[in-house]
Amino acid sequence: MRRLDSAKAGFEAAFAALLDRAPESSPEVAARSAEIVEAIRLRGDAALVEYTARFDRRTLAGAAELELPKAALKAAWDGLAPELKQALEAAAARIRAYAERQKIAEWSFEDEHGNTLGQRVTALDRAGLYVPGGKAAYPSSVLMNAIPAKVAGVGELVMVTPTPGGEANATVLAAAHLAGVDRVFTIGGAQAVAALAYGTATVPAVDKIFGPGNAYVAAAKRLVFGRVGIDAIAGPSEILVICDGQTDPAWIAMDLFSQAEHDEDAQSILLSPDAAFLDAVQAALDARIAELPRAEIARAALRERGALVRVRDLAEAAALANRVAAEHLELSVAEPEALLPLIRHAGAIFLGRHTPEAFGDYCAGPNHVLPTSRAARFSNPLGVYEFQKRSSLIRCTPSGAKPLAVIAGALADAEGLQAHAASARDRS
Amino acid sequence: MRRLDSAKAGFEAAFAALLDRAPESSPEVAARSAEIVEAIRLRGDAALVEYTARFDRRTLAGAAELELPKAALKAAWDGLAPELKQALEAAAARIRAYAERQKIAEWSFEDEHGNTLGQRVTALDRAGLYVPGGKAAYPSSVLMNAIPAKVAGVGELVMVTPTPGGEANATVLAAAHLAGVDRVFTIGGAQAVAALAYGTATVPAVDKIFGPGNAYVAAAKRLVFGRVGIDAIAGPSEILVICDGQTDPAWIAMDLFSQAEHDEDAQSILLSPDAAFLDAVQAALDARIAELPRAEIARAALRERGALVRVRDLAEAAALANRVAAEHLELSVAEPEALLPLIRHAGAIFLGRHTPEAFGDYCAGPNHVLPTSRAARFSNPLGVYEFQKRSSLIRCTPSGAKPLAVIAGALADAEGLQAHAASARDRS
């Protein structure tokens, strides 16, 4: 794994290179995605069946076959091993308990003139949830996306997931059953995003689309943004660990592996003031990689994107962490609460030696859908609030309207908008 | 103005046609915008000076001339008429009072195992604010964007605004002074968006870009989304009025004009169960258009996009309003609170006959930056919360980690992610 030292020459350039990971689409992928989206918009189900047959190698008599009956979800749930059912139920309960606290509050107040001003909150009517197929089909992601939707009170939750060769992932369907997903379509790619955005005769149009996908899915989401809402453009997973050198290096090694095993583009970085500890972690990485069925992926990710970084002190580590704005940040130090005030940007923060990032992926409670590629500088973990929206409320009394008419009239005059001015002054 | 009747044949198609306004970019605009963004990314200040000289017809010796000194903002403020200063100050105070209530709360709780779970909130380090130049340069928009940023505690607020021919809008600069904008650059278009997203030697890179602009600006924002946050893709302004027929038709006419005067693509729709009232409003529109300097714009907007719609009753009006999901919704009825529960989607809701939309544009308190083009189905008014972001907090105790390790281990096994499983079980 790459070794850097913040006190050495060349550090700044090497560190900056690690951070350049923004998820712009390639023009080719964007163009291909745009073609697919346009075909679905114009030809609906016919195009959807064609693309699904081609890309997922399926034989389809018609679009009706694209919907999975709810009984299939139930059957998948019933078929799970009891321990797995129990783990999913326990995770779901914890995710729900955390989500319940995220609801946006309604409020209102009266101004000095007797006018009422407020904020009203409503849920989305219909949300779409993209669940990747194949090896990246994660039941935990179904829970993480669907449970906040249900807590928000979304009217209908529509899941799409590709089934290459017609093979569905039973645990994903079981999780959809547990989380109360309303409808499931076995479609994927840009064509699924377009179907959710525009609707077809078979797939209902949704108001906002959630969930990660490949480059085509990301490009399609970027394209339909505006017509529908989208959650975010998801990039590769990331973990940044700040360690004081006192955590078991074998634990830290496995924490770094836990993101590196996701895919070759995942990023694992460790910051520590203790050079000997970095050596020990490197040794533990070498020793423990034998435990991993996905060793090749993890090895590639650590080689291409990873770094063990010697820092001067924990304060410098925090400053670097703010530049990384990592999806996952572990503060594996004796007093994480003392370090926390120095942290400004991170999707989720794991405090203390006994809080590995993997808890957050499955069952701690907070959502595992988090801003990647430095988006924690400006965006939020997925949460109930992303399935709700606010409306402003304004209620003027006849007398309370008069002072507002004076202000609005003067400003509208200054902006040359006479209808605004007249409309305001009509009430005075 | 177009007349529709929900009880007549052909209504559904005519009404649906009114709603098809989603703001997709044209491919030509998107491609041109992408070129400009790429030039700024690669060549920084040099490209920024070239585009600004060309598009804004300016003679520039270098990029340093693109920044307005703070003294220029102060001078603009000092030069305002006292009545206008007073109106801006009154509006700013009301906008601030409302914004103060929008801050996202921090919270935490302990689970049954002694683990702590929470939500932390921090402000953006640096926000960019795009203010259109020329005729659409509105000081009220500066207040509406800048005040929530300041209430959120944004570290630095950077405004960009084009000055065609070198002419700045003094009232816009004065508003920037009043609202506490930190830096102002006289740049616009896709080149300004790119400069804010990537940074140049002169313009600092920001974390999120706010504010409306033309099609090139919108395309550039869509393009840089992911590298930075963006607020929304702004479309033309809209007003939907539901009236029981008892408000002065002259008032309602002017309310419809108040959006129609913005631009030819603006949309004004009135829903009423009272056909005679719709006639009276049409007569008032004909009579009062003489009051408007921007009559031609308003006339075009009402002709192309407007409608007077007879509905069966107020409940049907509410159902139609939910399909429109208008930026501005007036409930100009005797008992707006009775109608409100039927409304699911609207950016801002104006209750009662004495609450014209124009109050919301200037001084009621709630933000006038609102979702357009049906985006109220899934998005929020601009608010303090858009200048803040959340981080999830997880803090496990040594004993509290054990039950989580069991759940996470089982789920990671099911997903084939052995490093996740091992990392979790290391703590048990």
From TrEMBL, chains A, B:
It is an enzyme of class 1 (oxidoreductase). Its EC number is 1.1.1.23. This is Histidinol dehydrogenase. The gene is hisD. CDD domains: Histidinol_dh. Coiled coil: none annotated. Its cofactor is Zn(2+). Keywords: Amino-acid biosynthesis, Histidine biosynthesis, Metal-binding, NAD, Oxidoreductase, Zinc. The lineage of its organism: Bacteria, Pseudomonadati, Pseudomonadota, Gammaproteobacteria, Nevskiales. Substrate binds at S237, Q259, H262, H328, D361, E415, H420. Zn(2+) binds at Q259, H262, D361, H420. Binds 1 zinc ion per subunit. Pathway: Amino-acid biosynthesis; L-histidine biosynthesis; L-histidine from 5-phospho-alpha-D-ribose 1-diphosphate: step 9/9. Gene3D superfamilies: 1.20.5.1300, Nitrogenase molybdenum iron protein domain. InterPro entries: Ald_DH/histidinol_DH, Histidinol_DH_CS, Histidinol_DH_monofunct, Hstdl_DH. One of its GO terms (biological process) is L-histidine biosynthetic process. NAD(+) binds at Y130, Q191, N214. The keyword Ribosomal protein does not apply. Belongs to the histidinol dehydrogenase family. It catalyses: L-histidinol + 2 NAD(+) + H2O = L-histidine + 2 NADH + 3 H(+). GO terms for molecular function: histidinol dehydrogenase activity; NAD binding; zinc ion binding. Pfam families: Histidinol_dh (PF00815). One of its GO terms (cellular component) is cytosol. The active site is at E327 (proton acceptor), H328 (proton acceptor). Catalyzes the sequential NAD-dependent oxidations of L-histidinol to L-histidinaldehyde and then to L-histidine.
